[in-house]
Design a protein that fits this description.
244 residues; Umud Fragment, subunit A; ten-stranded mixed sheet
């Protein structure tokens, strides 16, 4: 069964479960619940060969799942409506893996590590996880750019060199999968044995390390000295509520 047919079939089952199979006005009530015109829902439920039939797209499929409180991608797979669980048996391998790997929450470890926003801080003898922060997986996927979920870590910023962008004591979310300076961004890095959080820009012949606080002058790193900097991660979010 093609994906469009699976979605159409599951939407029909959801409507039948919610309002009763064959009940007059069910499409109208479903349309109201989903915030769509009745004609739109009717076209989504029509057989593919019917004139005006409409395919349920990716965005609408996710909206349906959210409205009915289903797991993400439930509409894309055979659904046991008695338990609202997804069966991946017989599905194409990529889709089965996508559904199987989906998480509602992302647990991000927080390390007892401080990145200096000043002269630099000593690396700890042991990187210890002190707690975990649970983030909504949908929020993470929609608002952050990262390499892999497993590369997301939390540390703390300390100092005033990145103010007002990042303030001392802010929780800082990093992507440990980024270990080179490819884009102008804020990085967590080791320089001269000290841990630092700074903005780094790549130029024609080397790097420029920049503090957002104008009281700290830029540091020029020529191309032949780039090896003096070990990039540990890219900063992708911090808890002043602003992303980068």
């Amino acid at each position: 069964m093609e994906l469009r047919d699976v979605r159409r079939h599951n939407l029909q089952k959801l409507m039948d479960k919610e309002y009763g199979a064959g009940v007059r006005g069910a499409q109208s009530r479903l349309a109201t619940k989903l915030g769509k015109p009745q004609n739109f829902i009717s076209r989504c439920l029509a057989q593919p060969e019917s004139p005006g039939a409409k395919t349920i797209g990716e965005s609408f499929a996710r909206d349906i799942e959210e409205t009915f409180g289903l797991s993400r991608y439930a509409l894309d797979a055979p659904l046991d409506l008695a338990t609202d669980t997804i069966s991946i048996e017989g599905l194409p391998a990529p889709l089965a893996q996508k559904i199987k790997s989906y998480r509602n929450l992302v647990d991000v470890p927080r390390y007892d590590v401080e990145g200096s926003m000043g002269p630099g801080s000593e690396p700890p003898d042991i990187n210890m996880v002190v707690e975990h922060m649970s983030l909504d997986a949908n929020w993470v996927r929609q608002n952050l750019t990262y390499t892999k979920l497993e590369n997301l870590k939390l540390i703390s910023g300390r100092g005033d060199s990145m103010a007002p962008t990042i303030r001392s004591g802010d929780a800082v979310l990093v992507d440990a999968g980024v270990t080179t300076v490819e884009d102008d961004a804020i990085y967590f890095f080791l320089m001269r044995g000290k841990l630092q959080i700074k903005r780094i820009q790549r130029g024609l012949d080397g790097l420029t390390i920049i503090s957002d606080n104008g009281q700290y002058p830029p540091i020029e790193v020529p191309g032949d000295r780039e090896a003096d900097i070990t990039v540990l991660a890219q900063i992708i979010y911090w808890w002043t509520g602003r992303s980068f």
